[in-house]
C-alpha cells in the first residue's frame, strides 16, 4: 500500500505454540520486523488482550518511529512508559482522541471497534483511500458504536476484518494481539 512501509520480514521465530495458529504468518512477520514485541524468544502471548499502549507502540514502529515533542492532554499516562512517545505521536496526529478529553486508559483492553477506529484514523493519516461496505449481513452490526461505524465499514470493505464468524463482527469484544497482528498485516499488504 502506498504510504505504508513494507513489512521487513517475516523472519521465522521459534514460537513453539503457534505452529497451527491461524495468525502464525502475521505474528512471525510483525515480530520479525520488530513491530511487535514478544514476551520471550518463544512466547508471543497471541491470545492476550490488546491494550492502547500496545496498539500505539506498534503503529508508531510501523510508521517509522516518529519522534515528536510536547505533552499529550491525557493525565493518566506515564511519561516514562514505553508507549509515551508513541501515544504522543498518535495524539498529535489525531489517531487517538482518548477515552475523554483528559484520559487515555493505556492499560485498558481495546475492543475490536476501538481497534478498527484507530487503524482507520491511521490509514487516513497515511493517506490511504477510504472504502465502505454494507454491514447489514452481520447480525451484530447494530452493536457497533456510532463513532466506529464508518471505521468498521472501511475495515470490512478493505478486507482487513473478516468477522469472528461468517455473520458476526463482535465489535465490543476485546481484541487480542493475534487479531491486531492479522489486521495490521492485511493493511500493510493491501493492494
User: What is the strand content?
Assistant: under 5%
Elements, N to C (H/E): HHHHHH
| Terminal CA distance | 6 Å
The multimeric state of the shown protein is single chain
Give the overall pLDDT as a whole number. Answer: 77
The total count of helices amounts to 6
Number of strands: 0
Low-confidence stretches: 1-17, 37-43
Shape label: globular
Structural class: mainly alpha
Radius of gyration: 16 Å
How is the secondary structure organized here?
Layout: H1 24-32, H2 52-63, H3 84-92, H4 112-125, H5 149-157, H6 177-189
Helix pairs in contact: 1-6, 2-3, 4-5
Please, could you describe this protein's structure?
It is a single chain. The protein has 191 residues and is mainly α. 35% of the residues lie in helices and 0% in strands. It has helices at 24-32, 52-63, 84-92, 112-125, 149-157, 177-189. It is globular.
